[in-house]
Structures are given as structure tokens and as C-alpha cells.
Amino acid sequence: MKRLLAGLSVLFVLFLTACSSTDSASGTTEDGKTEIIFWHAMGGELEASVNAIVDEYNSSQDKYTVKPVYQGSYEESLTKLNTVAGTADAPAVTQIFEAGTKQMIDSGNIQPVQKFIDEENYDTSQWEENISSYYQVDGEQYSMPFNSSTPVLAYNKDAFEEAGLDPEQAPRTYSELKEAAEKLTIKEGDKTSQYGLSILNYGWFFEELLATQGGMFVDNENGREGEATKASFNDEKGQKVFELISDMYEEGTFYNSGQNWDDMRASFQTGTMAMMLDSSAGIKGLVDNADFEVGVAYLPHPDDVDPQGVIIGGASLWMAKDIEENQQQAAWDFMKYLSTAEVQAKWHVESGYFAINPAAYEEDIVKQEWEKYPQLKVTVDQLHDTVPSTATQGALISIFPEARQQIVTGMESLYQGEDPKAALDKAAAEVDTVLEKGSRSR
Amino acid sequence: MNDARDLQPVPSQKSLPKRNLFAFLEGWLYLLPSIILFGVFVFYPMFRTIYLSFFLADQMGPFEFVGLENYQYILSSDSFQSSVKATILFVLYTVPAGILLALFLALLTNEKIKGIGIFRTLFSSTMGMSVAASSVIWMFMYNPSIGVFSRIAEWLGFPAIQWLQDPDYALLAVSLSTVWMNAGFAYLIILGGLQNIDTHLYENAKVAGVSYLYQLRRITLPMLSPTLFFIVTVSFINAFQTFGQIDILTKGGPVESTNVIVYSIYKDAFINNDVGSASAQAVILFFCVLLLTALQFKLGERKVHYQ
User: A biological process (GO) annotation for this entry (chain B) (predicted)?
Assistant: First the structure.
């Protein structure tokens, strides 16, 4: 017993010392290379592609070494970063999702990449403008776009044919969408074996459906002309989105697929619904896994508006501020490597995310892939057709995660028979409170 | 109630002050490791939480003293009220059902029959499963398209229920999986208690020729009461602190119907970056659990029969 106790206390002391001496996150390796840490949120197959790209970078030059570390979902990695940001343990490069943009800028712990762009006269016009503008505030480029996606309408072509619809002609307006959904819905007695449409209960889809009408999520031009103070998504445009969901749900043509992406895709693949909104980054997996033909089309819009296009989703790479100069140089060099046409082409093909560098679309591997998956091209075209404006640039608020939860709660209450306007107003009121509270942050 | 304790001699305070001081210090020395551990991992975080609840704070720390504003904000918000409701319902759904189920299984397997070990292993096996793994299994079972529950409903001719997407059922669904997850632990403890009961009592009962139910009421339950009291208290505290299955199965939705207080704390602190509000909720939860446990000891322990 005494021995055991002694052993345990030795272990405890060891544990304490281990805690205090975690080696600093970045440093210099023995062979004189500068080593930096790269936090990312790409799990599963995507992690393998990220690791392959980083390996290629490490062997392509002999000055820097990049160590990729998977940090869980976007939300989780942002949370983890918040606890180390501003210390010497902060990773030199971190991948942060679009909704975390304002939080990162406000944190004061990041180095805008504009500094390096200016120093080198780096040509940013080679980037996709619609993508880089999301991460631009007051003309300053804060972060380096990396993986970008947009929402699309995915549909089951076989089901379209069975319902007597033209599988090459996907619905574009809300009334076309409702009509198609009605034809696609198959009822057996009081049971529905196939629904028309499903939209994931996820705030991002609402933001997109709003932006394509030119609608603003918050005031002050989506928070890009000044600090946002009030929610503005509960206007006529926002109501149209909620009314669409509410109407279709009441008619029995809309399927509530919850909050989980995988559940929604599983339901689509098993034929529970014939149409759904999905991220362009999920299209390739969908085409591979479905035993029917998958069609991809632009995001639908109300009948009387000109579609404005879409906001980009996805993530960008941020550089830490309080790290050594040579590490920042390493980070910048790595970022530049990632945005080359070659790497972007590979990334686009493997992940289904957009190439942030349009020159990538001229690379052979992309052309071959597009022949195999013509659906991928639709998602790229939709981005190119987007009209740049503060609506399609997306909202810039630090309380995005919470705002999204409020939208989700609003969407869910629609299935309980809540009035669309009331549900939106409630969400807007909550967001107003949080915005007010958020404005008092440091 | 505790005659044995009262009879123990009380050491006199006046005799040998020097030795007393030494014994006092020695005692502290023995306690030191656990005091350090508790201090670092329990007491410091607790006082820090109370401190933070009076500030506007994010994950970097506090930045503005606001007094009781966090508490006012929480107590007046609809969201917190629905959290309180969800928490109370969750506790009511899981604690009695879980303990009754475990008691029933333990009584069944308290017999000496050939092969009983297999059943004992089966019934306690959920103890060896992590919350995350079990939640994922239940998530598949609840899935409306491919889950076993909708298959059964289909087979019986009922419409398939979206267990986790329907606010009327989501909390029940999470509770059901929680009862299953916790049953193993409660079962093991109760079985241990049953095995500890003196067999002479049962032999006497047999001689007296009393019925099984009478025996259960007059011998088994009273003798088991310390164990039951322990498991009730621990189950209550566990139920109030449930997090894993909610995070995996519903993320607090739909329409906040499963947004129990602990999950709401997590969301505020780690997603909404509002540590002040999260701390205030944690403090409120702490005092509620403290009060409830104190009440249990005051009221419940009277009925407990210590041998």
C-alpha cells in the first residue's frame, strides 16, 4: 500500500511538471528550419488531403516546417484558439470559419495578412473576388481565404422523372419549388413515403436564402459600414423564407431533417425527400454515395426578385500576432503556397470546396474531374454569377454563433405551427439583446 | 439512531497540548494531497466561477464589473426558464425510472441460480460503455429513416415519429437513453447492497412463512435503505449534470426543449463566448443542487435504517 502511494505521488509530481513544461507551440527544429503549427478543422477524408498538401509543402522547400493539428469542428477549434490566443502557445496559422471573422478581428490577437501583401506587392487580383471580399474589412485583407463553399439545391433526378418533371430543369423560384415538391411528394394513406424538400435547421441556409434576395441580416449594411446594432432579417425578405418553410410543412411536402448534416444526407440518399439544400462541399460525396442520379442547381429565390447570388461559406486562415517575425514569415509563405493554382486545383478536386484561385479551374485535374462530376461546375458557376454587394458579402457580427442558434430555434418553432412572422420577430428580438450585450465587450 | 457513535469516548481537550498540536499537524499532512487536488480542481474553479458571475466576461477573462446584472438577465430570460423546466422534467423522467429499473433487475438476479453471472454481467454492462459511444448507438436507433424505432413503428402500422426532431418527444427520447446508460451503475450498487443483507433474516422469514411481498417490504427494502439513499442522491446529482448525451443527440434543440441548464452553460461559455452569464447559471445550478441534496439528507435520511 505504501509503495502504491509513493508511486502515485511520484506520478502526480511528474504530471504537474509535465503540465508546466509543455513545449512552446512553435519553434526552431534541430536542422535550423523554422517550425510553425497549423490548426485546422478538417476531419475525416479532408484531414488526409490537408496532411498531404502540408507534406508536399514541407518537402517543396527547406526553410520552414509546418505541423498540421486537427482541432475538431469549426466551433471547437475557435473555442480552443480563444484560450491560447495572444500567448506564445498560439498556433501561427489557424483555420477559422466565416462566422468567426468578426470575433477574430475584434480579438486583437491576429496579424492582418494585408501587411505582407503590401510588403511584397502580392497580387491579390488572382483570387476569386467574391471569396476574398468576405474577409476584407475597410479595404484591408485580414485573413487568407482557404476553403469556401456555397449552398446549392441538390435533387434526385430519378424521382423527378418518376414524378413527370424534367430532370434537367430544376425549380428556381419559390412557386416552381412548391409545385415540384407537391408533385414529388408521395403519400400512402396517412403516411408520406417521399417528401418534396428538406432544408437543414441551420442558420447558414437562412442567411443564404436572405442574401440571394439582397436582404440584410443586420443593420448598418450588414455591419460592414459600422457596428451592427439591430437585426434586420425579420423584414419582408426574411419572412418570405420562413413562410416558404411554414407553408410547405403545412402542406406536407417539407421534411424536417433536424440539425445534423449527416442525418439529412442519409435521408436524401434513402429517398425520404427528393430535394434538399446542401453545401457545395458535400456534393461530391453525395454523387458518390447515392444510388440514383443527383442533380445540382442554384439556390431558389422568391418569384418577384432578381437573384443576387450567394454568400460564401467555409473558412479562412488567420495569422497569430504575438509570434516571432520568422514564424510570421513562415506562415505567410505557407499561405501563399496554399493559394497557388496547383494546390487549389488539388484541393478543389479532393474536397469539393472552391478554388480561391480561379486559375485552378484551368488545371488538367480539375477539367477531368468536372467531366466526371459536372455537378461541381454548377456550384462554381453560381459563385461567379453572384452580384457583389453588402448583402452577398455577408453579415459581419461577432455574435454569429448565437444568432444562428436563434434562427434555428425560430425554424424549429415553425414545425410547431408558430406564425412565421412571430417566429422571426422573436429571433430578431433575441439577436438585438445579444448584439447590445456584445457591443459592451472589450 | 446511532448509539454506537454516541458511546465512543470523546478525547479530552485539555490533556497533552503538545501532542495534540503534533497530531493536528500530522492530520493536515495526511489531508494535504487531497486538499491540494480538491483546491486546484474543485475549490479554486468554484470560487472563480462565483467571482466571474459578477462580471461581463469572455474566455480571456473578466472585463467589466456589473454586479447582479448577469443574474437579472438570466432570471428574466425565457430561455433560462425553459432550461429550468427541461432540467426538472429530465430529472423526473430519469431518476425514479432508472432506480426502479435497476432495483427490479437487481432483485431478479439476487437469486443463486446456475448461470446468474451471465445476467449480472449483462445488466451491469452499460456501466462499461462511454456516454459518447452509447449516445451514437441511440442516435442511430432514433434516426427516422434508418433507425430501429421507426422500423418497429412501421411494422406496427404507426406513423414514424421523429424522436429527436419533435419537441414533444426529444426530451423523452434523451431520458430513455439516459435511463439505459445509468442503469448499469445503479444496478451494480443495489445488487451489492442486496448481497450484503444477512441471510439469517430471510431464513427466519421462511420459517415464519411470510409472503414474498411482505418480506420485500419488511426485510429487503429497510436493509437496503442506506444503499438506496446513496444511489438516489448520486442519481439526482448526476441527472442535474447530464451533458454528453444531450450534446450528441439533440444539441439542446428542438425549440430548446432539451436545453438543460448544464447545456445552456456550455453554450453560453464556449459557443456564445459569454462567460459571465454562464458562470451565473452555474452558480444558480450549484445552489439548487446543494439545497436539494441538503433537503434529501434532512428528510430522506430519517427513513434510512443503518444497521
Answer: transmembrane transport
Q: What percent of chain B has pLDDT over 70?
A: 94
For the domain with range A151-309+399-438, which CATH number is right: 3.30.360.10, 3.40.630.30, 3.40.190.10, 3.30.70.2190? 3.40.190.10
Domains A20-149+313-372 and A151-309+399-438 share a fold: yes
Find the closest chain A residue to B32 by CA distance: A9
Q: Which residues of A touch B146 (CB under 8 A)?
A: 266, 270
- pLDDT, tens only, A7-18: 555 555 555 544
B82 touching A (Cβ < 8 Å): no
Q: Which among B59, B145, B160 is the nearest to A83, CB-wise?
A: B59
Tell me the sheet residues that pair with B38.
Answer: none
Angle at B76 between CA B73 and CA B81, to 5 degrees: 115
CATH number of A20-149+313-372: 3.40.190.10
Residue A321 neighbours by CB distance under 10 Å: 15
Nearest-CA distance from A32 to chain B in Å? 34
CA angle at residue A239 from A238 to A242, to 5 degrees?
Answer: 95
User: What is the tens place of the pLDDT at every residue in A408-421?
Assistant: 999 999 998 899 99
C-alpha distances (whole Å) from B102 to each of A168, A170, B122, B239, B293 are 58, 55, 12, 15, 21
Q: Shortest Cα distance from B106 to chain A (angstroms)?
A: 33
Q: From the candidates B145, B151, B171, B247, which should be mutated to test the interface with A, based on the most A CB atoms within 10 A?
A: B145
Break chain A into its structural domains and give their ranges.
20-149+313-372, 151-309+399-438
Task: Domain B78-303: give its CATH code.
Answer: 1.10.3720.10
What local confidence, expressed as pLDDT, does residue A24 receive?
44
Helices (H), B143-243: 148-156, 167-195, 199-208, 212-215, 221-240
Residues 37-56 (B) with a CB less than 8 A from some CB of A? 56
Give the residue extent of every domain in chain B: 78-303
